[in-house]
């Protein structure tokens, strides 16, 4: 006779029995590392209730995603949740779009053409050149940090960060895009490195 309670599903073979009341709901997969079971209160990790940098932050808000991007700028180990990845992508896209619009407006301010279509004056270079340089610097900074963020996101779905080399082949960026949309997988925990 087993110590199973009536109306409880049997435990999978080879796993120790769970105490009564703490069993995983029948038919539900185990929750990935760092996530709470549905209906349970979020367990705080730090003094402010956020997980440590070494752990993925599931359900990260925009501010936390941007902060963690810069705090883990060169960190290729560990994992990044889908919310960490896509909130930062949204913030980066909005800032880049805004800078491009402002640069385009500045370029068009001083430009006029005559009846033949020839430019009569140039945009104000004192403003235009710094904006172009700012756009370029922002692009370089985001490019460098995005490689580590994408590697951590791929780790969270259980894949190697080396899948980013698909960017070098035709349509490889579409494959990487699809991979970053996947759900978190528990096997991604193998990419975690314990830190103090």
Automatic annotation (TrEMBL):
<keyword id="KW-0812">Transmembrane</keyword>
<keyword id="KW-1133">Transmembrane helix</keyword>
<dbReference type="GO" id="GO:0005886">
    <property type="term" value="C:plasma membrane"/>
</dbReference>
<dbReference type="InterPro" id="IPR008523">
    <property type="entry name" value="DUF805"/>
</dbReference>
<feature type="compositionally biased region" description="Pro residues">
    <location>
        <begin position="7"/>
        <end position="19"/>
    </location>
</feature>
<protein>
    <submittedName>
        <fullName>Uncharacterized membrane protein YhaH (DUF805 family)</fullName>
    </submittedName>
</protein>
<dbReference type="Pfam" id="PF05656">
    <property type="entry name" value="DUF805"/>
</dbReference>
<feature type="transmembrane region" description="Helical">
    <location>
        <begin position="161"/>
        <end position="182"/>
    </location>
</feature>
<feature type="region of interest" description="Disordered">
    <location>
        <begin position="1"/>
        <end position="50"/>
    </location>
</feature>
<feature type="transmembrane region" description="Helical">
    <location>
        <begin position="85"/>
        <end position="107"/>
    </location>
</feature>
<feature type="compositionally biased region" description="Low complexity">
    <location>
        <begin position="33"/>
        <end position="44"/>
    </location>
</feature>
<feature type="transmembrane region" description="Helical">
    <location>
        <begin position="127"/>
        <end position="149"/>
    </location>
</feature>
<keyword id="KW-0472">Membrane</keyword>
């Amino acid at each position: 006779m087993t110590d199973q309670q009536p109306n409880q599903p049997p435990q999978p073979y080879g796993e120790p029995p769970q105490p009564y009341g703490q069993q995983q709901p029948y038919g539900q997969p185990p929750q990935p590392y760092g996530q709470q079971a549905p209906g349970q209160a979020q367990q705080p990790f730090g003094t402010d209730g956020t997980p440590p940098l070494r752990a993925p932050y599931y359900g990260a808000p925009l501010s936390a995603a941007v902060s963690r991007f810069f705090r883990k700028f060169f960190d290729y180990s560990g994992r990044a949740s889908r919310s960490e990845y896509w909130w930062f992508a949204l913030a980066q896209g909005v800032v880049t779009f805004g800078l491009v619009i402002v640069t385009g407006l500045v370029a068009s301010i001083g430009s006029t053409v005559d009846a033949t279509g020839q430019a009569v004056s140039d945009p104000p270079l004192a403003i235009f050149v710094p904006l172009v340089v700012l756009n370029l610097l922002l692009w370089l900074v985001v490019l460098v940090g995005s490689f580590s963020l994408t590697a951590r996101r791929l780790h969270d779905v259980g894949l190697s960060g080396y899948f980013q080399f698909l960017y070098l082949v035709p349509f490889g960026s579409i494959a990487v895009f699809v991979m970053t949309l996947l759900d978190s997988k528990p096997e991604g925990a193998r990419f975690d490195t314990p830190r103090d």
